[in-house]
Design brief:
Layout: H1 2-42, E1 44-49, E2 71-72, E3 74-76, E4 82-84, E5 87-92, E6 98-103, H2 117-128, H3 135-139, E7 142-149, E8 152-157, H4 164-167, E9 174-175, E10 196-202, E11 206-211, E12 224-229, H5 233-241, E13 247-248, H6 259-264, E14 268-283, H7 293-302, H8 305-311, E15 317-319, H9 342-353, E16 359-365, H10 374-386, E17 391-397, H11 399-408, E18 413-419, H12 426-432, H13 438-442, H14 450-461, H15 465-482, E19 485-498, E20 501-502, E21 518-519
Parallel strand pairs: 1-12, 1-13, 16-17, 16-18
Antiparallel strand pairs: 2-9, 3-4, 5-6, 6-8, 7-8, 10-11, 11-12, 13-19, 14-18, 14-19, 15-19, 20-21
Helix pairs in contact: 7-9, 14-15
């Protein structure tokens, strides 16, 4: 009997033990499953942006550099100095005409093909002949680009190009697999070397990326990244607040008036970054009244830039100093910052306008107004310029119409951002102030100054850094006196993250290093 009793007790204990073991196993399995779900969630990042990062097959890079899909030979740091990326080092010949670049080894494109000098030269030749690339302006008077060994290439110029590593930074030396493009340079699919691989484009909605597990640098912690195009500023913010996106990124992704809302939300973090973008007011000098530089100076002096920064930008910006971004410290002329002097502005305007009060059109790109407070800035300018006798009519148009009206010269004034992507002043002056400059022509600036043309040409080939700086200082002085652009403010970009997103930072080119980013609980 006792034996049976003991057997019964043992059986019960064994059953209890097995039951407990089973339940514990189920519990652990459930916890593990939840952890797996959390892990999967951590690996995906959704970024809201105010413009479409897919440029299309006819663009030199097809997708924006912020996607981290492709990389370049050189890249600019936050002081706008060139740093190695796919090129490890470089040197220039004594005459300043031949630049030699040594390339990084053991780098592969996303399709598994190797990156080497032959492929680098193929890409540079693709860019040189691309219809959307102004080769002479970007690369100088280039005679030849050639392979010297498996991981070394040379650029030979007819004249010295002293800042060439800066000029080819970022977009201007984007490297793609030969399988990406056809003989005409049309991109079928952007296959780069970056930490993320292009997977899919959803038209007018999103760019979808996957981690490059064979990346030559720091391996990405995220498995998937989505850049979601949300053109409306308020909709972008709502998407961040609701958790539809994890980050709002890029220049103009967060409007100044939204900063206080983000700061109050304990789930969000507001961040700032000074970038190489400057915002300008420019004018059509083909108009008789604007041919007189006194009116240009009057307009510039009538603008209270600091008031605009304080009231419209809520302090998130820097009052315009020069046509060159203040991040380019070695080139900046600090003595040409436009001064607010309403009384002097009235006197200068009177010499041109006499007793008339002409109506002028301030053309505003509505697409840009969804990324920066251009409408509010235009209204402030409307009020300020009325003080000197200009009746400003604000005309809002979409991006396509804006470009067409500028090219046709159907405007008086307009607003624009411009980013010094090379960190080198020639990129600004040869585009805006050279009489044959691309934007000078396509935006009907009507600007022609023989002295400016001469200085721009000299600075582009001057090997002595001190002399080159003096030439750029003089050009900034001419720009301050004659235009055709006057700087309104230098951009301090606002962006925002959910607090679970770690290590998401923008640089001076408003690009994030996505390989560093992770998501935590």
């Amino acid at each position: 009997m006792k034996s049976l009793y003991r057997c019964g007790i043992v059986s019960l204990m064994l059953a209890f033990f097995l039951s407990s073991l089973f339940l514990t196993g189920c519990s652990n399995k459930e916890v593990k499953t939840t952890a797996d779900v959390q892990k999967a969630e951590k690996q995906k990042l959704v970024i809201g942006v105010g413009r479409d990062f897919y440029y299309g097959p006819s663009d030199p890079t097809c997708v924006h550099g912020s996607t981290n899909v492709w990389e370049s030979l050189t890249y600019l740091d936050n002081e706008l100095n060139p740093q190695p990326q796919l090129a490890e080092s470089w040197e220039v010949s004594p005459d300043g005409k031949v630049w030699t670049f040594r390339l990084r080894k053991n780098v592969k494109f996303h399709d598994g093909s190797p990156f080497n000098a032959e492929i680098a030269v193929l890409n540079m030749k693709r860019l040189l002949k691309h219809p959307k690339v102004d080769a002479r302006q970007i690369y100088g008077d280039l005679k030849d680009v050639r392979v010297t060994n498996e991981y070394t290439i040379q650029f030979e110029h007819n004249t010295p190009v002293p800042e060439f590593p800066s000029m080819i930074a970022y977009f201007n030396s984007a490297m793609l697999s030969p399988a990406s493009f056809d003989e005409q340079g049309i991109i079928k699919e952007p296959i780069g070397t970056g930490p993320f691989v292009f997977k899919k484009y959803v038209k007018d909605d999103s760019v979808i990326l996957a981690a490059n597990k064979d990346y030559w640098g720091k391996k990405p912690l995220l498995e998937e990244v989505v850049f979601k195009f949300i053109p409306d500023a308020n909709t972008r913010l709502a998407a961040l607040q609701d958790g539809e996106v994890d980050v709002l990124s890029d220049v103009g992704a967060v409007m100044p008036e939204q900063a206080a809302i983000i700061k109050k939300d304990k789930k969000l973090e507001l961040k700032t970054q000074a970038v190489a973008t400057t915002h300008y007011l420019f004018m059509n000098k083909n108009r008789d009244m604007f041919k007189n530089n006194d009116l240009f100076k009057a307009v510039s002096m009538a603008i209270n830039r600091q008031e605009l920064v304080d009231k419209i930008l809520e302090g998130y910006g820097k009052s315009g100093q020069s046509v060159i971004t203040p991040l380019a410290t070695k080139w900046l002329n600090e003595e040409v910052a436009p001064q607010y002097d309403l009384q002097e502005a009235k006197k200068l305007a009177q010499t041109v306008l006499k007793d008339t009060k002409p109506q002028v059109t301030l053309l505003v790109n509505s697409g840009l107004s969804n990324r920066w407070p251009y409408k509010s800035i235009a209204e402030i300018l409307q009020y300020q310029l009325a003080q000197i006798g200009l009746q400003v009519k604000i005309e809002m148009v979409d991006g396509g119409a804006w470009n067409k009206q500028l090219k046709a010269g159907n405007y008086d004034l307009s607003l624009t951002p411009f980013t010094l992507m090379t960190g080198e002043p020639n990129f600004f002056f040869s585009t805006h102030m050279l009489s044959t400059g691309d934007l000078n022509k396509n935006r009907s600036y009507g600007y022609k100054n023989n002295e400016a043309d001469k200085l721009i040409s000299q600075a582009a080939v001057e090997k002595d850094a001190g002399k080159r700086r003096q030439l750029y200082l003089e050009l900034q002085k001419i720009a301050a006196e004659q235009g055709p652009l006057t700087p309104i403010y230098h951009d301090i970009t606002l962006y925002a993250c959910n607090i679970k997103v770690k290590n998401f930072e923008l640089d001076a080119s408003f690009k994030p290093d996505l390989a560093k980013v992770e998501i935590t609980n």
